[in-house]
Amino acid sequence: RNNIAPRTYAPVVRRDGADVIIQSMRWGVVPHFQKFDDGSLKTINARGEHLTDGTSSLWNSLKGKKRALVPVHGYFEWLKAGNDKVPHFTRYKEEKVMMLAGLWDVVHLEDSKEPLYTFTIVTTSSSKQLSFLHDRMPVVLSSKEDIELWLNSEEWSKEVSRLITPSTVSFECYAVPKEVGKVGTDSPSFVLPISKRKDGIDALFSKQREKAKKRPTPASETSPNPSPTVREGKRKAVEKNDNETKTSTKLASSSSSVSALARDPENVNLLDPGLDDSSSDIVEIPNPSPPPKKKAKINRGR
């Protein structure tokens, strides 16, 4: 799935005695002492500071033996831009699975026969790289040692507290379509940059280029083969202006592939877009010389 919203189910990794299991749980903790689920609890995230300072009785009851991992490909966050909000997707550059620190609980509600398993994601202050996006981010466990420590410990310790820090890993973060904000919708395009979508900018220009290639040549650009007399006349005209024709063609083809072109036709300054002015190349083009004059033969009568 590409769009998991709060109060929907997701896979969670936790310990079950000596075993490690993957279990589907609902996002948003419902405490074990709760009798009814009215949806009013705001427990989709647990602030890491409340775990380390012990100020939350709810998180204190879970942080010892009910720690979990939430495996994801990435997460969404909304960037405020004036009065608008633009969704962004954050993931590893290598596109590998990201392990988020979580807590879980199970409750037996009075209006349900089945136990309800729920989870929350632990957050911390944002890293320097992602501070432009939001002041908070999930706790990302990137090393094998951190993952084992978070998952295998049965009590809270100073070593575990040290895991509640912003990740130093370099992530990939980019804008995604706003449709991701609609609960219940899902599409592979939700995790792709906007420009790579089928209806994005790159796709638009690609379609235009394909149409241009397939466009037939207008009839006005084609002409019937000239008669031998006309063809001979044109051949002489081309021979006469041969030097001029070659020079102007070379100049046109060169100027179409550079970023700047000097006005002086004798010194064409070709500036590569990746170089500065000091690295420019000067190409000398000589003045076209006029064709040699031919002496006309006069046939005198005898």
Could you please describe the fold and organization of this structure?
The chain is an alpha+beta fold. It has two domains: 191 residues, Alpha-Beta Complex (hypothetical protein yedk fold), CATH 3.90.1680; 35 residues, no CATH class. 21% of the residues lie in helices and 26% in strands. The chain is built from seven helices and twelve strands. The strands form three sheets. A five-stranded mixed beta barrel has the order 1-2-8-7-4. Strands 5-6-10 form a three-stranded antiparallel sheet, with no helix packed on it. The termini are far apart. The C terminus is likely disordered.
How many H/I helical runs?
7
Report how far the terminal alpha carbons are from each other.
103 Å
Question: Strand arrangement, largest sheet?
Answer: 1-2-8-7-4
Number of strands: 12
Per the CATH scheme, the topology name of the largest domain is hypothetical protein yedk fold
**Rg calculated over all Cα atoms:** 35 Å
- The low-confidence runs, each spanning 5 or more residues with pLDDT under 50, are 200-207, 236-300
Helical content stands at 10-25%
CATH class wording of the largest domain: Alpha Beta
Fourth-tier CATH superfamily name of the largest domain:
SOS response associated peptidase-like
Protein name: DUF159-domain-containing protein
Biased composition (Low complexity): 248-262
Biased composition (Basic residues): 292-302
InterPro entries: SRAP, SRAP-like
